[in-house]
Amino acid sequence: MYRTAMLTKDLVAASSKPLLLSILAGGESYGYEIIQKVRELSGGHIEWSDGMLYPVLHRLEREGLIDSEWKEADTGRERKYYFLTSKGGKTLEAERQQWLKVHNTLCKLWKLKPVSL
Amino acid sequence: MVKSPQHTLQIMETQTRFALNAAIEDWRQELAAQIDLSPEVRRELETHLRDTIAELQRHGLNDEESFWLARRRIGQLTSIGREFGHVRPNPAKVWRARVFWMVVGVFVINLLRFVSITAHLVLMSLLWCLVGVVIWWFLPESLRTRLKHV
Questions:
Q1: How much is the ipTM here?
Q2: Chain A nearest C-alpha distance from B52 (Å)
Q3: CB–CB of A117/A101 below 8 Å?
Q4: Which chain B residues are within 8 Å of A30, Cβ to Cβ?
Q5: Neighbour tally for B67: CB within 10 Å
Q6: pLDDT for A13-47, tens place per residue?
Q7: Which residue, among B41, B42, B51, B80, would best test binding to A if mutated, counting the most A CBs under 10 Å from its CB?
Q8: What pTM value is reported for the model?
């Protein structure tokens, strides 16, 4: 059955890049924390299978948009922390512009208040 | 032999703890079987599983519930592996790059050969000119005059 509350697979895939870059723009983070944040911010509407986060993170790293480093956390457990690169910052800005354009077009069609770009 | 209720409880607790470790170990075996996952990614996924289990335990779930829910949240390891397979450079691209460098290699070798043959020819002609000049220099005066009139 089609559930309107959840994002479709295509939308989840398309939005993963701006989502991850935006989270990392707020400071370095690791996989588990990122997933928690997405779940919390989306009110549970964006549900990723946790494991699927890693191929995306590694792809962004390969593209040079993010970088990573293994560090020991307070728990003593080593974690791989990801952070935004300057190239990633520029890409995020471009992504932001594009998403807001789509958003504003839909807002006009649905007679909602658009946001300023 | 009669076992005290406390003793039985202890056994049950130990068994539960053991089951969690064994379950994680089984899951790690499954993880190790995914050839598309690098050791680093496997390490990340295992940390993720352990973090999730710890978090769920904090919320009051028991070992077994925490493990199964954490495992479910991570999802199918085969599909993660498949996804990483896509992240890797595709074979067609790799082969295109290989062929490109082979062609470049052959071109460079030929260029070097051409340069060396040309250099060889130029040097040899210069050498023979020199030999001619030297011979001319050492010829007796009478022979030189006669050759000039030829």
A1: 0.85
A2: 8
A3: yes
A4: 47
A5: 23
A6: 899 999 999 999 999 999 999 999 998 898 888 87
A7: B51
A8: 0.68
